[in-house]
Each structure stands twice: as structure tokens, then as C-alpha cells.
């Protein structure tokens, strides 16, 4: 049987993106034909402004080369405009008479510039700003003519004006509104923007009504005349007074339209065989004029075209970034505010910085930034996540503290960095390399940048910087997904949150059940989702879900840390950092017997034996077990160490028995797996020699009891732990910290450290569950104790249960 | 000339796992078993920084290197795009539950 036929009208970003998404999930489902009115393959329309400004060339902004169409078996008709859709015979007809039959039709005809209905709007020299042809005409005109007038002080108009100025023209921007970008900026920011652009040599005429365009003796446009009688010379007039969804073809074909092709949440039109995406559609009464929503729409449309029937598009919150070099401006959401909103404003006109955040019901609903937009992506994420900002309100306006992130020389503002500056210290990736990849490869998401450049793909501490670079390079096309909607990996559309909920609500206890229930697209997942699912299963259903060693990464599978040469390091547990002469003797014996090349004291108060061959691991464990020692879990997303100071046992300042408390905590938490590694510390007095302020749980003894701190981190992101509460007894320390860690184990996403989880949910939420809800706390604590009941040393169980031979190579005789 | 050598039984390799084979001349070879009991053999050296692929996580017909997370195709030994590189592959066959390797 032949394949069903899919025809796409409109060879632009939205349509082709949908085809790409479709090919990803159902590569052989359709025979695909694409019609494009322009003579080019699909290109990145949002980068036309850099082309006009002379910063890029047309070949650089092509997203899909002709090879791409050919290698995916797509029939491409360029330079052909579809003039009719015959819905009865199910075929489309192009202006050259060619026809293509369809079983499914996708309309992505985009939008057209709105040409003011005034006399002279069809004169030579009067153009819109939409495509390569318009851009070429502007570049050509700038070479021979002097005066340009841009009608419209919106994003597109300002980018056009900036480009024409750089091309040497004398440019005046005419704007009907009271300030520039009134749909993206409030008045203060609009005025600041105007000042900076005037400094660049642009002229502005605000609140001016254009009456007509005057023809010159050459036949070409020569001047613009306003209603107040004023007239200015113009050899080129660019109409940038808005765009209109291009739905004429659909409407003519009898498809229901209302200021756009009306689609439902699956991007389907009123004709069930016809879908539509992009700027031509009207979804819930909104036609989007920015690129960002297209990507979400494309995903949904592709899913339904592929016949999976999953996913709904429910609308987008968009953000704005003006792509004019040297001007930093960001706005998102409801930035004007109103009666029921509150505002936090930072205004430094001399320093050229203005920030306004709009808050409603303790949530960020919008914001404008001018001059310093470094935190734009962070605010946008908070907005999308609808995160309760009550606990960070005091410092919100100052942005996300990037203090403590290391590996990029303290840089926190991507725009100010030189192209040669190193952004990712792990993989040595510079800003220039990232920008180049974003432009040349057509990257739109952080994940794509990670894959192509490796930036932010190791420790991840520079992810914020990379996002800033992405946002400033692609402008309004940048749109992070809400955190709880980001897919775990390429195997699924589902987020960590969704998977956790399904495992709990549907009582799933095997990875196969998860894959089947949630429609995984790969037979057995990948290196990202499988360890996460295995953790969710065993933490949600302890003693019931069975641990799957093949879903664990090598360190947890071999209970040791792999090193760069393929050898392993072994760390026996030293409870609370305490050891004995007998243990030290046994460690020394192992080091000599197995010729361990390096013996090192770790940061967690124990001893690391580095350079052990894998085949020696079972024997090393046996020797250490024989001396009474067990695994230190130095390799796991699990409890690592409880660091202690000497406390009141010896110290003249000590107020509490820190070592004793530390050993008790470490014994309680033995063999506890978690979303990420977990470190604790107990100090006997506020001098805090055990450095409890940078641990996941820090306990500090005071004369009247203990202070508990949570969410500290000394590694990737130096983060000071936040005060949770004060307790009186050792038993309470166990109960509160146990309950806190159980909540983290149950609700954090895999690979989220406690500090990142707290960033996401807020300290208030955690206090509510642990400090204020006594019954809830007891239940959580009991859950942890039950989960860790009968915990066994993984070294001895591994030696006994798992066939040890898997550690031994198979030798082949000559 | 390579010769078929009997290596082990299929069940000696864990499903979605691997074993190391050490030939007389050295140069460890990793043999992999997928969830549907296909077997593959690659030089146990990731094209990126030489990581032991035998210690990686097997999924579908790919293995993820344990050192820096490159994905390598089990059938062709080639890195999955956008990474570029490859390692040697070896013929391997399964007969009556026994794994044979051409070395």
C-alpha cells in the first residue's frame, strides 16, 4: 500500500519545523510535498536583521539546505505560490498550474506586512520587511539613495532602521504611538531606548500620522507627508506598522477563518484533514507574530499528524529581545501591570539601567529590563514556572545570584563578554564558538547548544550564561519550556514530574511498565532516562520495585568510581570521619597487596584508594569487609559523608557532641539513594569547623540545642545553606533531617541537588512540610526509616549475589 | 586472517550489559548483549578519550561511554551525531546459545 500524502503550503520556519518534528517521530509515515512561494530553501527569518545590518550573509541563515529535502525524500517546489485548495478532490493548485493531491494538508503561510492604506503605498521604493527579497532591496537602495523612512517603531521597524543606518542611510522612524515599542516596553524603558538609538544617529517622529507618500519626478517615492502638514524627504519607505496573518488562501477555500485560520488545541482547522501552524493561525483568538510559539505548535501538530494523538497546544507567554547590537532590552508577560498587580522597580537613568518586575499573588507575571538583561532568562523561567517568589522577593530585582558559580572567570553577563572569553570551563568552549554554532546550525534550545558545542554539558554551571547567549542571539525566538514540562530526554515527551506522578499514581514498579504506560519511543530508554526511572521506581516503591543494575551508570553498578584510565577508586566508609588503628592497618594492607598507586585523604574525611583494576574489586572489598569496613558510597547518587568536628567530646568550645551526632546520622542514612549525592556535616558550636553551611543538611550545635540548615552546596554552585529551624534534642535532629531528606527523595527530580530543588520549590514550601506539619514530618521520617530498613553493604551483597565473574575479563587462548 | 573463537554462553553476558574479552595479543574487546539478545563486539576504547565502552550503559543498539557520555552505535562503532569518530568493530555470531567472535 502506498503511503498517505502530506502537502505543506509554506516553506518557512513553522511549516518545516513541523515536518522536522514529524520525521523525528514517524520518519516513514508520509509522502511529503512542500510548496514555497520564495525561491529559497527554509531560512531563519529572525536573522534577516543581522543580514541587513551586514553582520551575516544569506547563506549563513539557511536552516535546511536543499540536500535535506532530498535526503528525506521530500518533493520541494520553490518559487511556486499555491493559489487554490480543492478540498473536495483533496489537492492543491499552484500559480504555474502544477497540482499535488493530499491526504493531510498543513498550512503555514505565515504573515504579510501591513501596508498602510494611504495614497502612494504602491509606489516604487515602498516596501514591507518580511523576506530575503525585501532585505536585498533595502541593501541595494542604501547604495544609491540617501533618505530612508521607516513607518512603525516596533521591533521589526527598529531593526530595519538600525540596519539601514549601518548601511549609510539617513533614517527617520515614524511612530504613531506615544513611545517606541509600546507593546513590549513601558514608557520609561521606551524613552531610554529612544535615547540610545538617537545616540546611534537615528531620528524619531512620535505620534505622527502619515497622510500620504509623495511621488517624485523619477516616478519613485520622494517624500512622506503627515496630517499636520509636515513633509520629509524619502527615497525608501519601509512599512513596519505590523503584520497580518496570511490566511487569504485558506479563507478563499472555505476554511473557517477569523483574523487567522482558526485552529483548535491540536492545531487542526475546521476541516479535519487540514492542519495549520505559525503566524497564519488564530488559536484561542490569538495570532502570534513571534517565532517562539511556533516550536510548541510544530510539536503538537507533528504528533497529531503522526497519528499519536498526544499533546495540546494551550497558548504561549512570549518574551521580547531586540536584536540591535549594543542595546540590551528584554520584556516578557504582562509588563505594564494594573490595579491588582504590584511592581518592583530599579531605576538608574545615569547608569542606563532600568528594571521593572510585575507581581500578582506572589508570582511574577511580567517584566521589562533595559541596559542589564542578564537575568532575563531567569525571570522568564520563574514566570513560566509560576514559582511562588515570596521567599526571594527581597532580592528578586537584583537577579539570580551567580556568585559562586565557577569555571567562567566570574562572568555573569554574557553580553559583556568578548568572543574569545571562555564560557564553559569544563570543555573549553568560548562565547564566539557558541554564537557561531547557534547561527550556523540554527539552534533554538539550550539542549541543542549543549549537544553541538558541549558547552554546559559537563558540570552545567555555565548553563545560565549559555542561555543568555542563546537569548541575545536569537531574540524573541528564545523560549524555555516551563521546568515541569521539559522532557526527560529524547525518548519521550514526558517530564520528570509527569513520570514521577505516573509511577506513584499508577503503581508502576518496573521500567518496562513505565515505558509502556507512557509510550516511550525507544525500546529501552537511554543513558539519561533509564537511571532516572530506576531511581524513581526504587524510591517510590522501596522493597517492592527491584533495583535494575543495568539501568545504573557504571559507578553505582561496580560500587567504585571509574577513573580516566578505566581503573577504579575505592573508599571505605569512616562513620563521621572516625577510624581506628585496626582499620588503618587493613587499609594499608589492601594498598600494598593490590599495589594501589595513590592513597589520598578525601574532602569528606576518609581515605581514597585510587587506581584499582576492575577485576581486583571483589577481592579488595572482601579484605575491607573482613576488617569490618563497608562501602562509603563515594560513587553514588546517595548518602556520601557526614563530616564532623571534634565537638564537645574534646573541644574546649564545643557545646554538643558533634562526632556522636554525626555517626548517628550517618548510620541512619546508610545506603540511602537520592536524586543526587547528599552530604551532611555536624559542628559542635557556631565556629562551624565542619563547614556545615555548604552541606545538603548542616547541623550546628548551640548551647540550647541544634540549628538545622538545608540546601547548601560547596561544589558546582557555591550556595550557602538556608536556616530551616532550631531543635532541642538528638532525636529531633534525626527526625527533621530524615524527613527533609525523604521529601527530597520523593519530590526532587533526578540529578537535582538539594540547592537546585529548593530554588525550584522554595524554602517556604519545605518549611511548611517539615517544620509546620508535625504529622507530615513524622510520616516522612517513618517512610525513610522503613525504606532503609535492613540496608546491606553493597560490597558484600554484590560479592555474594551478583556473579563476580562479570568483573573478570574473558581471556582467549592463542 | 581472523578466526571464529568460542567466547562464552549468551547468559554469561547480562542483558543490556557487556563483558570484556581479552585476546592473546591484547587490545580488549567489549561484547554487548541487547534486550532482544543480539550480540555486538567493539574495540573497548571510545573514539573520544579512550574510555572503556564495556563499562557503559547499553540502550537500544547503542552504548554510552562511561567517561564523557558519547553514544556509540553497536553495529558500526560510529559515534552518534553531532559527535564524530569511530572505533573498530568485530564480527560476532550467536549459535545455539554460544557467542563466537572473529579475531
TrEMBL record, chain B:
Keyword line: 2Fe-2S, Iron, Iron-sulfur, Metal-binding, Nitrate assimilation, Oxidoreductase
InterPro entries found in the cross-reference section: Rieske-like_NirD, Rieske_2Fe-2S, Rieske_2Fe-2S_sf
PROSITE patterns per the UniProt record, alphabetical: RIESKE
Gene3D superfamilies in the record: Rieske [2Fe-2S] iron-sulphur domain
Residues annotated as domain Rieske: 4-101
NCBIfam families: nirD_assim_sml
Protein name (database record): Nitrite reductase small subunit NirD
Amino acid at each position: 500500500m502506498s503511503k498517505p500524502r502530506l502537502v505543506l503550503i509554506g516553506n518557512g520556519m513553522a511549516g518545516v519545523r513541523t515536518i522536522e518534528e514529524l520525521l523525528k517521530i514517524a520518519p516513514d509515515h508520509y509522502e511529503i510535498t512542500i510548496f514555497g512561494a520564495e525561491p529559497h530553501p527554509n531560512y531563519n527569518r529572525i536573522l534577516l536583521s543581522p543580514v541587513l545590518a551586514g553582520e551575516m550573509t544569506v547563506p549563513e541563515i539557511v536552516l535546511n539546505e536543499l540536500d535535506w529535502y532530498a535526503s528525506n525524500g521530500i518533493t520541494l517546489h520553490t518559487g511556486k505560490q499555491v493559489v487554490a485548495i480543492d478540498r473536495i478532490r483533496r489537492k492543491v493548485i499552484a500559480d504555474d498550474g502544477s497540482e499535488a493531491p493530499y491526504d493531510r494538508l498543513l498550512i503555514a503561510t505565515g504573515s504579510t506586512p501591513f501596508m498602510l492604506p494611504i495614497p502612494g503605498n504602491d509606489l516604487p521604493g515602498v516596501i514591507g520587511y518580511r523576506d530575503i527579497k525585501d532585505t536585498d532591496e533595502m541593501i541595494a537602495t542604501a547604495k544609491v539613495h540617501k533618505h530612508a523612512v521607516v513607518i512603525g517603531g516596533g521591533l521589526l521597524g527598529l531593526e530595519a532602521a538600525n540596519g539601514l543606518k549601518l548601511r549609510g542611510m539617513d533614517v527617520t522612524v515614524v511612530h504613531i504611538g506615544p513611545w517606541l515599542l509600546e507593546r513590549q516596553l513601558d514608557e520609561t524603558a521606551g524613552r531610554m531606548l529612544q535615547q540610545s538609538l538617537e545616540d546611534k544617529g537615528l531620528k524619531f517622529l512620535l505620534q505622527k500620522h502619515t497622510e500620504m507618500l509623495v511621488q517624485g519626478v523619477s516616478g519613485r517615492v520622494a517624500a512622506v507627508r503627515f496630517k499636520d502638514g509636515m513633509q520629509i524627504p524619502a527615497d525608501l519607505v519601509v512599512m513596519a506598522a505590523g503584520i497580518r496573518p496570511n490566511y487569504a488562501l485558506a479563507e478563499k477555500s472555505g476554511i473557517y477563518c477569523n483574523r487567522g485560520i482558526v485552529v483548535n488545541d491540536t492545531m487542526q482547522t475546521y476541516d479535519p484533514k487540514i492542519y495549520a501552524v505559525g503566524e497564519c493561525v488564530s488559536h484561542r483568538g490569538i495570532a502570534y507574530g513571534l517565532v517562539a510559539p511556533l516550536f510548541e505548535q510544530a510539536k503538537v501538530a507533528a504528533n497529531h499528524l503522526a497519528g499519536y494523538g498526544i499533546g495540546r497546544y494551550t497558548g504561549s507567554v512570549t518574551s521580547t529581545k531586540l536584536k540591535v547590537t549594543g542595546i540590551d532590552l528584554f520584556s516578557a508577560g504582562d509588563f505594564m501591570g494594573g490595579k491588582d498587580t504590584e511592581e518592583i522597580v530599579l531605576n538608574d537613568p545615569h547608569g542606563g539601567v532600568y528594571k521593572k518586575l510585575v507581581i500578582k499573588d506572589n508570582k511574577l507575571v511580567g517584566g521589562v529590563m533595559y541596559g542589564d538583561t542578564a537575568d532575563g532568562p531567569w525571570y522568564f523561567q520563574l514566570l513560566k514556572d509560576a514559582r511562588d517568589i515570596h521567599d526571594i522577593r527581597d532580592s528578586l530585582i537584583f537577579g539570580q545570584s551567580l556568585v559562586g558559580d565557577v569555571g567562567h572567570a566570574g562572568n555573569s553577563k554574557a553580553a559583556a563578554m568578548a568572543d574569545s572569553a571562555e564560557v564553559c570551563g569544563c570543555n573549553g568552549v568560548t562565547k564566539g564558538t557558541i554564537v557561531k554554532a547557534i547561527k550556523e546550525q540554527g539552534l533554538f534550545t539550550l539542549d541543542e547548544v549543549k549537544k553541538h558545542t558541549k558547552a554546559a554539558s559537563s558540570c552545567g554551571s555555565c548553563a545560565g550564561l549559555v542561555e543568555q547567549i542563546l537569548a541575545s542571539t536569537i531574540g524573541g525566538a528564545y523560549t524555555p519550556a516551563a521546568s515541569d514540562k521539559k522532557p526527560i530526554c529524547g525518548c519521550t515527551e514526558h517530564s520528570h514530574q509527569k513520570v514521577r506522578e505516573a509511577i506513584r499514581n499508577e503503581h508502576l514498579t518496573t521500567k518496562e511498565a513505565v515505558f509502556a504506560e507512557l509510550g516511550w519511543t525507544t525500546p529501552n530508554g537511554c543513558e539519561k532516562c533509564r537511571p532516572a526511572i530506576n531511581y524513581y521506581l526504587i524510591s517510590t516503591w522501596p522493597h517492592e520495585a527491584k533495583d535494575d543494575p543495568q539501568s545504573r551508570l557504571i559507578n553505582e553498578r561496580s560500587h567504585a568510581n571509574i577513573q580516566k584510565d578505566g581503573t577504579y577508586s575505592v573508599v571505605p566508609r569512616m562513620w563521621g570521619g572516625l577510624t581506628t588503628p585496626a582499620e588503618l592497618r587493613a587499609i594499608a594492607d589492601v594498598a600494598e597487596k593490590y599495589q594501589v598507586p595513590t592513597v589520598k585523604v578525601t574532602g569528606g574525611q576518609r581515605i581514597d584508594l585510587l587506581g584499582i583494576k576492575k577485576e581486583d574489586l571483589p577481592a579488595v572489598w572482601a579484605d575491607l569487609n573482613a576488617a569490618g569496613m563497608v562501602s562509603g558510597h563515594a560513587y553514588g547518587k546517595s548518602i556520601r559523608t557526614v563530616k564532623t568536628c571534634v565537638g564537645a567530646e574534646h573541644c574546649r568550645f564545643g557545646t554538643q557532641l558533634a562526632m556522636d551526632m554525626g555517626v548517628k546520622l550517618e548510620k541512619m542514612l546508610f545506603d540511602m539513594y537520592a536524586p543526587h549525592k547528599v552530604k551532611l556535616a555536624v559542628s559542635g558550636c557556631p565556629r562551624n569547623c565542619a563547614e556545615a553551611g555548604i552541606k545538603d543538611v548542616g547541623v550546628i550545635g548551640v548551647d540550647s540545642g541544634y540549628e538545622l540548615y538545608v540546601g547548601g552546596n560547596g561544589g558546582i554552585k557555591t550556595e550557602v545553606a538556608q536556616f530551616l529551624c532550631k531543635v532541642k534534642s538528638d532525636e529531633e535532629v534525626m527526625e527533621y533531617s530524615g524527613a527533609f531528606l525523604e521529601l527530597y527523595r520523593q519530590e526532587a527530580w533526578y540529578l537535582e541537588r538539594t540547592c537546585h530543588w529548593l530554588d525550584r520549590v522554595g524554602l517556604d514550601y519545605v518549611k511548611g512540610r517539615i517544620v509546620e506539619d508535625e504529622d507530615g514530618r513524622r510520616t516522612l521520617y517513618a517512610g525513610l526509616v522503613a525504606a532503609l530498613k535492613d540496608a546491606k553493604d553493597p560490597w558484600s551483597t554484590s560479592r555474594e549475589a551478583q556473579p563476580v565473574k562479570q568483573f573478570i575479563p574473558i581471556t582467549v587462548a592463542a | 586472517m581472523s578466526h571464529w573463537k568460542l567466547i562464552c554462553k549468551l547468559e554469561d553476558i547480562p542483558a543490556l550489559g557487556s563483558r570484556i574479552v581479552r585476546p592473546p595479543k591484547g587490545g580488549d574487546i567489549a561484547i554487548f548483549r541487547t534486550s532482544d539478545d543480539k550480540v555486538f563486539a567493539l574495540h573497548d576504547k571510545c573514539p573520544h578519550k579512550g574510555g572503556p565502552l564495556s563499562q557503559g550503559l547499553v540502550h537500544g543498539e547503542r552504548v554510552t561511554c562511561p567517561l564523557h557520555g558519547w553514544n556509540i552505535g553497536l553495529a558500526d562503532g560510529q559515534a552518534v551525531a553531532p559527535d564524530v569518530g569511530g572505533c573498530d568493530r568485530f564480527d560476532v555470531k550467536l549459535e545455539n546459545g554460544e557467542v563466537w567472535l572473529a579475531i
